[in-house]
Write a structure and sequence with these properties.
By secondary structure, this protein is α+β, with helices and mostly antiparallel strands. The protein contains 7 helices and 20 strands. α1 packs across α2 (36-48). It is globular.
């Protein structure tokens, strides 16, 4: 059952409780492709918590990782804004605005591609985020202390990359500083632990079989060939053609950087919907990105950021299995 405005308002109290306080002012960035009940519920929840919401609405951006229009971008940089919420139809986590917010020490919540159906109390929004974070911290520690990560799957994925010197992170709906002296944020719904591999070290094949940016639910597996840290081939059916067209139209050399991220989904309440916002958080899945790495502490600044999800990968760090067959195997 799709939740009504009252239900959505109640659920939105969770991310606001974790990320804001009474007296704060939050900026909600949304666009005309999003269901209005979402920004209405979020702003209502804020008012009920004595938080002042400011709602800005724009036309959808052309691609993921594209900044909002300039007037909205300037508003987000204001010293009087405590928290910026990306409630948009395209993902802006790897847009330039995010790096600027981090440098300014400001906070944000990623709610891109959110739908009302994702906000049912028994869905991913109703998960125990403290328990998710406890698990995520264990996985993040393994990433942080590791040197080499490998991802394999029955569908044909076999990818290795160096993670030496790169921090693992747990993203679980609550504030996370991306740099000691900077700002940061989280997502909602949320639940993942990720690492940004060293650029230029990726080798192998990635086969997405669940969901991917700009294509939704995957019907024919989307295959990437990665050599010396670059995607050299994008193969498959309809899904591959869409990615090829996006990369050719909007990409640059750095948009082919891969893997830009390797992540393990931690949210046990996610069921596949064909939307990246929640599918990539599904327990035991892995999403892998290509393109920009700046927001994750990497060195590759790219025009694009694209991600896909592998349903039941095996992930190992220095030979130690941390996930296999939809299960997470850490103590």
């Amino acid at each position: 059952m799709t939740p009504n405005l009252a239900d959505i308002t109640k659920v939105f109290r969770t991310p606001l409780t974790l990320n804001a306080k009474a007296g704060d002012r939050i900026l909600i960035i949304t666009d005309t492709a999003m269901d209005p009940i979402l920004w209405q519920g979020l702003s209502q929840a804020a008012r009920e918590m004595n938080i002042e919401p400011i709602v800005t609405i724009m036309q959808p951006r052309e691609t993921h990782a594209t900044d909002p229009v300039e007037p909205i971008r300037r508003a987000a940089m204001g010293d009087d804004v405590s928290l910026t919420v990306y409630l948009t139809s395209t993902a802006m986590a790897h847009a330039p605005i995010t790096e600027d917010l981090v440098q300014r020490g400001q906070s944000f919540i990623l709610m891109e591609e959110l739908t009302p159906a994702m906000l049912t109390p028994d869905g991913p929004a109703g998960a125990d985020y403290h328990a998710i974070n406890a698990l995520g911290q264990k996985v993040a520690k393994i990433f942080t202390e590791g040197e080499t990560v490998r991802v394999r799957s029955s569908g044909g994925t076999d990818l290795t990359a160096s993670i030496k010197g790169r921090p693992g992170r747990s993203i679980a709906g609550m504030p996370l500083r991306l740099r000691p002296d900077g700002g940061g944020g989280c997502a909602f719904p949320d639940g993942e632990s990720h690492v940004c591999p060293v650029e230029g070290t990726g080798e192998g094949t990635v086969v997405f079989d669940l969901t991917a940016h700009s294509v939704g639910a995957i019907k024919e597996p989307l295959k990437l060939t990665i050599e010396k840290g670059w995607v050299t081939k994008v193969e498959g059916g309809r899904e591959a053609k869409i990615w090829q067209e996006i990369l050719e139209k909007h990409g640059d050399r750095n948009s082919y950087n891969a893997p830009a991220e390797i992540a393990l989904g931690l949210n046990p309440k996610v069921t596949p919907t064909g939307v990246m916002r929640t599918d990539k958080k599904m327990f035991g899945t892995s999403h892998i990105g290509m393109g920009d790495t700046i927001a994750l502490g990497g060195t590759c600044h790219a025009r694009l950021r694209l991600e896909g999800v592998i349903r039941q990968p095996e992930i190992t760090v220095d030979g130690k299995v941390i996930a296999r067959d939809g299960k997470i195997l850490v103590e």
